[in-house]
Write a structure and sequence with these properties.
This protein is about 35% helix and about 20% strand. It is of the alpha+beta class. It has one domain.
Length: about 100
């Protein structure tokens, strides 16, 4: 069976688009072993804080609360929240949108 192979690519400068519902600021709190996510509107006003111990429970909460309207944004949040979880577990610094420094 001949299955097509596609090389993955993404240019965030060309392909990224804002989620109309708002955006999220992600931080880790090592002293509490928690990840915190602040949901904000585009007037930069905080709307909701979500805290949790792992990426999956947080992103699923955001989905369940209908705070994400695009698949691209959901994928981005899953990626960033997983980085935050790894940083928390390994005692690394986490900065949203920056690679982890091992």
């Amino acid at each position: 069976m001949d299955i097509p192979r596609i090389e993955a690519e993404y240019d965030s400068k060309k392909e990224w688009s804002a989620d109309p519902k708002g955006y999220f600021l992600i931080r880790i709190f090592p002293d509490k072993q928690e990840i915190g996510v602040r949901y904000q509107n585009y007037k930069h006003e905080p709307q909701l804080d979500v805290y949790g111990k792992d990426a999956e429970s947080i992103v699923q909460t955001l989905v369940r609360k209908d705070l994400i309207s695009t698949m691209q944004h959901a994928a981005y949040l899953g990626h960033e929240l997983h980085k935050a979880e790894v940083a928390l577990k390994l005692g690394l610094e986490f900065v949203q949108d920056k690679p982890l420094e091992f």
